[in-house]
Write a structure and sequence with these properties.
278 residues, alpha+beta, 12 strands, 4 helices, six-stranded antiparallel β-barrel, single chain, Thrombin, subunit H
């Protein structure tokens, strides 16, 4: 207590001065508009700064909770997107599975292309359907645009297709307008075109003529789209046309296909084999 009294006595003049200054300041602010406005404005700025600092600190400590909420929302959105993609894929496959064939002995299975090449000399394609889905070797493959190729190998879940863009595949085709039959073969140059061979010079051939499957095989039904004639050349010494066909299928953008099963294929092959061996 003595120390406090000594402090007050020692600094009494300074303390009295400070008290009088505070009283004078209060009287000045209370009875004059401009100083009052300045003080209030300064006080508001200080209060706003303190509130903003407090809000920043509060936001910082709530970031972990907000991040957790955002992560949960993102996960839910990803799940919804995946579900919608699966539904769209199912709709696309269903539409392909309804590809119409009049022959009741033809069965169609929809599949998605999961790997594909168009720039090689021997191109291949992989589908997401295999033996467990009823896909087998030597089955024909088509898209909504036209003929794609032939299944060459299968596993339980996948199938490999030799497309038209492979010299190992030859497709029996015909001119739709007159029924004359030739063989479609790829020359390994351009994924958009193939060659139609064995069309004799006396046959009426014109650019723009439609090429379809002939039905002369156990792989493809008759009259499936193959392409249109882009160029037909014939010199005086040629016995057959040099025909360039623009393919119906765009192999750069193909996504979904249908695999064709001919239920009578084995019976046909057996009978033809017996006949040829006689």
């Amino acid at each position: 207590m003595r120390t406090l009294l000594q402090f007050l006595v020692k600094y009494s003049i300074l303390l009295l001065f400070l008290v009088l200054e505070i009283v004078a300041f209060i009287l000045l602010v209370r009875h004059n508009n401009y100083p009052q406005s300045a003080v209030l404005s300064s006080a508001n700025r200080v209060s706003a700064t303190l509130y903003e600092a407090g809000s920043t600190v509060s936001d910082y400590f709530s970031l972990r909770t907000q991040n957790r909420v955002l992560m949960d929302e993102n996960a839910e959105l990803r799940n919804r997107i995946a579900a919608l993609e699966n539904k769209l894929e199912g709709v696309e496959e269903d539409s392909l599975a309804q590809y119409v064939y009049a022959d009741k002995n033809i069965e169609v299975r929809a599949a998605k292309v999961i790997n594909n090449s168009t720039h090689l000399q021997r191109n291949y394609m992989t589908l997401n359907k295999g033996e467990r889905d009823g896909v087998g070797i030597d089955m024909g493959v088509v898209s909504k645009e036209g003929v794609v190729g032939i299944v060459s190998a299968v596993s339980e879940k996948y199938a490999v297709v030799i497309p038209v863009l492979n010299p190992k595949v030859s497709i029996s085709c015909k001119l739709r307008k007159n029924g004359y039959v030739g063989t479609l073969h790829w020359d390994g140059k351009d994924y958009r075109f193939a060659e139609l061979q064995d069309i004799a010079r006396h046959i009426d051939v014109n650019e723009g003529d439609t090429i379809v499957t002939s039905g002369y095989s156990d792989v493809f039904p008759e009259n499936l789209p193959v392409g249109i004639i882009d160029k037909a050349e014939l010199t005086e010494s040629d016995a057959y046309y040099n025909i360039k066909v623009r393919l119906a299928v765009n192999f750069k953008t193909i996504e979904y296909v249908s695999v064709i099963e001919n239920k009578n294929r084995e019976e046909q092959k057996l009978l033809e084999g017996v006949t040829q061996n006689k």
